């Protein structure tokens, strides 16, 4: 198996500790693939009800001038976002046993600032519970970027570090959904974005013909279909090609309720792509979020890239001789 992945996860830090404690938590995050974010105490629930993608919450049991303020806040967070694991920093013990029964179920684990190894072990159980092979992560990003630039050639493209979430937030007004299935996985891929007007390539090669205006929804399905085809070519073995070759039309869904659930708290592998219009730097960038959830089956030890010859791709109709 490959070296440890470099996938990160964003966690909300809600802690009233002193400077030394907060520095220790900050160092812990940097050393354990966590991106810590903070907000003002009055804004916690507002942030959690927004579309901030999170992998978990680090919360201290005393908060907002109350020795049990964090515990009460944890109950509210769990009710609002039950899919998010909450790690409770306790002052006297690294255990949830002394909490009231109604509170224990709201937290996934407790830790003490003097035993951060305990928190590290809990991260593996509740956030980094899935191992994502580096080759797969890099490959998914590469085939997605290639597909985006086919339809959005007028844009430059950047991708943030891949990250893990355990929420069910939908980012934007429009998303596509397509099933993925192979020997080593069964699940879904989504692309999500705001559905606004963008400038795409004109059918004319005349430099004086202005690019046409499209909406993100006009190209998102095509991009998804191309990524799905590349996934099938690169990562699906012969024994699954018949199943994957069945008609798979990406579903285009527009929701007022920005939430989707797959019936489990399976970690989702995520990518955030930012596209900037090269001809109009003043235009706001297009942000596309890609999520992969392998909620039905996940066996990374069986993952391998499929070695396919040019002749096989021609025979399958995926390449044409020039």
Give the secondary structure arrangement, pairings included.
Blueprint: E1 8-14, H1 19-31, E2 34-37, H2 44-48, E3 56-60, H3 69-80, E4 86-89, H4 101-104, E5 109-111, H5 116-126, H6 134-151, E6 155-159, E7 163-165, E8 174-181, E9 185-193, E10 197-200, E11 212-215, H7 216-235, H8 238-244, E12 251-254, E13 268-277, E14 286-298, H9 310-315
Parallel strand pairs: 1-2, 1-3, 1-7, 3-4, 4-5
Antiparallel strand pairs: 6-13, 7-13, 8-9, 8-12, 9-14, 10-11, 13-14
Helix pairs in contact: 6-7
Description:
The chain has 322 residues and is an alpha/beta fold. The protein has two domains: 8-126, 3-Layer(aba) Sandwich (Rossmann fold); 134-315, CheC-like (Chemotaxis protein chec, 3-Layer(aba) Sandwich). Helices cover 30% and strands 26% of the residues. The protein has nine helices and 14 strands. It has helices at 19-31, 44-48, 69-80, 101-104, 116-126, 134-151, 216-235, 238-244, 310-315, and strands spanning 8-14, 34-37, 56-60, 86-89, 109-111, 155-159, 163-165, 174-181, 185-193, 197-200, 212-215, 251-254, 268-277, 286-298. The strands form two sheets. Strands 1, 2, 3, 4, 5, 6, 7, 8, 9, 12, 13 and 14 form a twelve-stranded mixed beta sheet that branches. A two-stranded antiparallel sheet has the order 10-11. Strand 8 (174-181) and strand 9 form a beta hairpin. The longest helix is centred in the last third of the chain and has 20 residues, at 216-235. The protein is globular and about 65 Å long. 30% of the residues are buried. The model is unreliable at 1-5 and 318-322 (pLDDT under 50).
